[in-house]
Design a protein that fits this description.
The protein has 336 residues and is an alpha/beta fold. The protein folds into 2 domains: 186 residues, D-Maltodextrin-Binding Protein, domain 2; 132 residues, Periplasmic binding protein-like II (D-Maltodextrin-Binding Protein, domain 2). Helices cover 34% and strands 18% of the residues. It is built from 12 helices and 11 strands. A 6-stranded mixed beta sheet has the order 8-7-6-9-5-10. Strands 2-1-3-11-4 form a 5-stranded mixed beta sheet, with helices on both faces. Strand 1, helix 1 and strand 2 form a beta-alpha-beta unit. The longest helix has 20 residues. It is globular.
């Protein structure tokens, strides 16, 4: 039987997806064409044009679409991108913002209001610090260069004040100049990286704040999942389990390499110490666990926040989002 030709668009994760890219891990029954795209293009091209058979997808956007009745995609419970986000809230040093409550009434930049990082940050601001999204003024646009194209149009609640910045401006520039008081971003602003003294993190001790968040909530925020176009899935129901198995094997192969700490696998001096700290915080469990049940609590929290923030307009159940074939998976042996 000939293999199904499948183009997959995603990111290049050295320790999670590279084995799929270089062919050392195969997807049974699939002739895979793995292409790498920047996130701003990846999500937009998949949501707007369904350009790829399968793709990495913003979990916030996927849940928002499903919660508005758009069921063009079915998800595989693979989560290649996760990130604590307290360390991705930045403020202008002259804005007089010393604590989260000081964000009330301020001008906040965000590349896209629906981005998953923004959802998680708005959630902890509201639930841990009592700062509601309606208490801030939001500005969206290009992050480090001019230009903005929305990945999926969402009508937000009437009490959310959201504006698009002028097309010749970008958010990092406006934060540096004090035209924005704060910025939610998926990466560190360039002026922060260059230590120019214009921008700082909202939480200077962000690692300990994030560890406390995990210990209190049990949530390691999911950013992205994997989706398959529903027409491809319905015609090839076997593909869901095969994709899941291959992504799991790729992750295990990468993790096995990372755990070799004689010659360090990556050019980071304190990898062994970081691995020990992560093991302590997560109780010896895999922080990057795939599958539905180990992640149900996190997914349900995201669904709750999506509805609460007006991204989704109706509640969608976890079981409706993911391929049924992935709910009961056979044991997968360790990668060689």
């Amino acid at each position: 039987m000939s293999e199904l030709k499948l183009t997959f668009a995603g990111c290049d994760y050295w320790d999670r997806t590279r084995p799929l890219m270089d062919g050392s891990v195969k997807i049974t029954g699939v002739d895979l064409n793995y292409i790498v795209l920047p996130l701003r293009d990846l999500f937009r091209r998949m949501v707007r044009d369904e350009e790829f058979g399968a793709a990495e997808m913003s979990l916030s956007t996927f849940v928002a679409l499903a919660g508005r009745g758009d069921r063009r995609f079915v998800a595989i419970p693979v989560f290649p991108s996760r990130n604590f986000r307290h360390s991705y809230l930045f403020v202008n040093v002259k804005a007089g913002i010393e604590k989260p409550q000081d964000l009330r009434g301020r001008r906040i930049g965000i590349p896209e209001y629906q981005m998953t990082a923004g959802l998680w940050i708005r959630a902890f601001l509201q639930h841990d610090y009592g700062v509601h999204p309606r208490e801030m003024e939001w500005f969206t646009g290009g992050l480090a260069e001019a230009g903005y194209t929305e990945r999926a149009h969402l009508t937000l609640p009437s009490d959310i004040r959201l504006s698009v910045i002028p097309e010749h401006r970008h958010l990092e520039e406006m934060l540096d100049k004090g035209e924005l008081d704060a910025l939610i971003a998926p990466v560190r602003p360039k002026s922060l990286v260059r230590r120019e003294g214009k921008v700082r993190r909202m939480f200077p001790d962000s690692r300990n704040v994030e560890k406390d968040y995990y210990r209190r909530t049990g949530i390691f925020p999911i950013m992205h999942t994997i989706v398959v176009r529903r027409d491809i899935y319905e015609a090839n129901r076997w593909i869901a389990a095969n994709l899941f198995e291959a992504f799991e094997r790729a992750k295990r192969q990468g993790r096995a390499r990372l755990l070799v700490t004689g010659p360090l696998a990556v050019a980071l001096p304190w990898v062994p110490d970081d691995l020990e700290e992560i093991d302590e915080v997560f109780g010896g469990q895999d922080p990057w666990v795939y599958g539905i049940e180990p992640n149900r609590k996190v997914i349900e929290a995201l669904i709750d926040y999506s509805l609460e923030q007006g991204l989704a307009t109706q509640r969608v159940a976890v079981d409706e989002l993911f391929a049924k074939e992935c709910f009961v998976m056979p044991a997968i042996g360790e990668a060689a």
